[in-house]
Predict the 3D structure of the following.
Amino acid sequence: MARSEALGVPRTVDLPHGTVAYRERGDGPPVVFVHGLLVNADLWRAVVPVVAAAGHRCLAPDWPLGAHQHPMRPQADLSPPGLATLIADFLVALDLTDVTVVANDTGGALVQVLMARHPERIGRVVLASCDSLEAFFPWPFHILPTLAAVPGSTWLLTQALRLRSLHRLPITFGWVAKRPLPRHITDSYLQPARRDPAIRRDLRRFLRAVHRRHTLAAARSFAGFDRPVLLAWAEEERLFPVSLARRLAEVLPDARLALIADSYTFLPEDRPAELAALVVEFARTGGAAPAPGR
């Protein structure tokens, strides 16, 4: 399915992992968006136009997390460190420097590994309600790596999600989005893995590699990460309590916390205008001004 035209012009880039599709909109300092599990660039469809209008070059890729367009190569490393390398390769391939990286949900865990292992091209980071520390995955999603080890489980999961009545359950979208997602958006998120066994293969390989040791190891390196970090967190977070964000702020040398009301984890879905405003201000100031909530 085509991504929202609000994200800009469709492009692709060939990387060692495989072909990555992305949308690009605007000119100016680069902002790269990193979504989470079983969603794609459409997550940012209401955020990108605001950030681009403020004078930024916005790049929203489909990362290989189960809702992407192009299967990765069979030998590609789809573990969290492997996907952090994929993000780093994307920045290198497009020669992006001093990048503002904006991540949500599972994407935040990948970006934390990126911060630990490949910080060279990062200028600043926005972590928006995301997996971190020991919450990778959080309850109730912690069962997914175990389930993924069972043959046929990812097929069963993706087929079961044809039932829209299941979309408000905690194990699906019920605890990540406060409001029901539009039908065409859930189709964008769920149909790729439902239709393509190679996409399901990628999803299964990632799920089997998820473990909190990756985010805990990244956090141990944060004392040496000197770029500004904005922790944009949902005040009503169901999966990643605000206490988790406060702990991250304690180990990051230059971090600020901004709380967003009336939202769950999917801030780009529930409160896109508020998140976009925070990203624009943070990218403009470089984190110089304290954000509310710290």
In short: Confidence is low (pLDDT under 50) at residues 288-294. The first strand starts at residue 9 and ends at 15. The longest helix spans residues 80-93.
